[in-house]
Amino acid sequence: MKNFFLQVSGFRPTISELPVLIRGVGIAVLFGRLFYDSWIAVIFLLPLVIPWFIYKKKMEKMRRVRILGIQFRDAIASALTSLKAGYSIENAFREAGRDMELLYGKKSPICQELRRIYKGLGNNIPLEKLIGRLGKESGNADIEEFAEVFAVAKRSGGNMTDIIGRTIAVISRKMDVEKEIDVLISSKRLEAGIMNIVPFFIIFYISITSNGFFDPLYHNVVGVILMTICMLVYFAAYLLSQKIVNITI
Question: How many domains does the chain have?
Answer without folding.
Answer: 1
